[in-house]
Amino acid sequence: MGSAAAIAEWGRPASDITHVVYVSSSEIRLPGGDLHLAARLGLRSDVGRVMLYFLGCYGGVTGLRVAKDIAENNPGSRVLLATTETTILGFRPPSPARPYDLVGAALFGDGAAAVVIGAGPIAGGESKPFMELNYAVQEFLPGTHGVINGGLTEEGINFKLGRDLPLKIEENIEAFCRKLMGKIGNEELGFNDLFWAVHPGGPAILNKLESKLGLEGDKLESSRKALMDFGNVSSNTIFYVMDYMRNELEKKKEGGEEWGLGLAFGPGITFEGILFRSL
């Protein structure tokens, strides 16, 4: 289980988890997955729980933002952020009337991920944090709510992505990134001075972003590797990208980038972004 592995790496008992943020676009049930997870992990009965349902591909970064806010406003708290997606629920058998379904079957995957987030790390009492969540922004593009849509039907969960999604991202991504970068306070830093953890919604999105921002060839390597290895696993995928990015930054050590951006895009069209600082 991803959550159990995250707690084990964190190095403290599960009973020290004070809050759970649970993200999924693959289920609707009462009680929710947050309660099932807390019970299975043996978390304390007064753990604070938040469910984030049906956010789609940006849900993982939303979870980071919400967990960040909880941790910063509750001194000493430790937040378990867990994501789980079973995109096979959206599978449709091939049909000449719906050729687009084949794209979804090839692109999407299933999986889970988890991280522990807190403020004021305890030296020697828990594993050393590897990333600071410095600043977070969410923004939607007016008039684009039909570009990504989905819902529950008699056939199950149904999602559809508009063909103009990569173009809409390309047209708006630079201003969004500059808004996040403004919090660094160093106007000399350019896009290639940062590390990048981008949700790989598909190859076209990564290509458009890379071209628009003039990124060097290896800047989106972690995103491309996650897409190749796991597919688009909706809210989970950003954590696979971050794990690959953590390994890359550890290899670079003192020569690695200090600042980076975490980005994801989903229904709305919604942009979700985090300014990271490597520790």
Automatic annotation (TrEMBL):
GO terms for biological process: polyketide biosynthetic process. The keyword Signal does not apply. CDD domains: CHS_like (cd00831). GO terms for molecular function: acyltransferase activity, transferring groups other than amino-acyl groups. This is Putative stilbene synthase. Residues 132-279 form the Chalcone/stilbene synthase C-terminal domain. Keywords: Acyltransferase, Transferase. Gene3D superfamilies: 3.40.47.10. Belongs to the thiolase-like superfamily. Chalcone/stilbene synthases family. Pfam families: Chal_sti_synt_C, Chal_sti_synt_N. It comes from Fallopia multiflora (tuber fleeceflower). Signal peptide: none annotated. The keyword Disulfide bond does not apply. The gene is STS3. Residues 3-121 form the Chalcone/stilbene synthase N-terminal domain.
